[in-house]
């Protein structure tokens, strides 16, 4: 399957040749990343909006760019999923003290029940984007149907509009990384931690010594009030005792 897809993709990229079983459809198979930042961890959503002409979809094979090594595909109800592996010419550091000796070359979703034309589905892949700002990632995708198949593998030539292609491959361009390159800024602390930090900062005095917090400042006041109330209670109790003695006399 991997060799067939690669051969098909190479031919299509070189000559623009596409394979269509039951005719081209109006909408494309697309990829929508939740981030395009180079080096970021991303969720890529591949949308399949129709069949091959009027034929139901039975399999969707998504080929990974060579720069991508590890992929975690989502598990979709109604579909079996398979990662097709490929040996690497040289091991790649996995960032956790180990090495990758093979990469995910292709992710294949096979329908347990064919997806009818006129219905759509989506497949989400989790992966780390290459650190290559400005580079376009292309994901040649073959959609197999009960009758025929649609090979979404066309890539626009320089200056050509991708929308003008009959069966364009899903693709997107990597943009400049922001923050820590993981789609979020490492300098942004959770709200509760930021709030705690603000309280601690306000609690420090100008000379660096901890200043009394509002709770600590309120403690002496509460203590004096309690002592005053206690003394008043003792006085009232003494007066009541004296009145009782006099009445008895």
UniProtKB/TrEMBL annotation:
Keyword Transmembrane found: yes
Any stretches that span the bilayer, and where are they? 221-242
Entry's Pfam families? Answer: DUF1775
InterPro entries assigned to the protein according to its UniProt record, in alphabetical order: YcnI-copper_dom, YcnI-like_sf
UniProt signal peptide? 1-27
Tell me which Gene3D superfamilies the record gives.
Answer: Uncharacterised protein YcnI-like PF07987, DUF1775
Transmembrane helix found in the keyword field = yes
Where composition is biased (Low complexity), the residues are: 196-211
Domain of life, per lineage: Bacteria
Query: Domain YncI copper-binding: where?
Result: 28-174
Which of UniProt's keywords are assigned here?
A: Membrane, Signal, Transmembrane, Transmembrane helix
Q: What is this protein called?
A: YcnI family protein
């Amino acid at each position: 399957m991997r060799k067939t897809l690669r051969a098909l993709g190479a031919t299509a990229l070189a000559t623009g040749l596409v394979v269509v079983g039951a005719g081209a459809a109006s909408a494309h198979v697309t990829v929508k990343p939740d981030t395009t930042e180079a080096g970021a961890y991303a969720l890529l959503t591949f949308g399949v909006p129709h069949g091959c002409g009027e034929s139901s979809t039975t399999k969707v094979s998504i080929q990974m760019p060579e720069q991508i090594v590890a992929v975690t595909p989502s598990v979709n109800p109604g579909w079996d999923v398979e990662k097709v592996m490929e040996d690497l010419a040289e091991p790649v550091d996995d960032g956790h003290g180990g090495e990758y000796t093979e990469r995910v070359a292709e992710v294949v979703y096979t329908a347990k029940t064919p997806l009818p034309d006129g219905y759509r589905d989506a497949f989400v892949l989790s992966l780390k984007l290459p650190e290559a700002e400005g580079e376009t990632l292309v994901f040649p995708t073959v959609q197999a149907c009960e009758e025929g198949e649609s090979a979404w593998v066309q890539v626009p030539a320089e200056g050509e509009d991708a929308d003008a292609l009959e069966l364009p491959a899903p693709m997107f361009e990597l943009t400049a990384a922001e923050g820590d390159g993981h789609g979020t800024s490492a300098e942004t602390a959770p709200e509760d931690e930021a709030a705690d930090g603000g309280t601690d900062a306000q609690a420090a005095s100008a000379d660096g010594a901890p200043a009394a917090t509002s709770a600590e400042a309120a403690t002496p006041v509460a203590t004096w009030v309690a002592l005053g109330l206690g003394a008043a209670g003792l006085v009232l109790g003494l007066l009541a005792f004296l009145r009782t003695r006099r009445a008895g006399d």
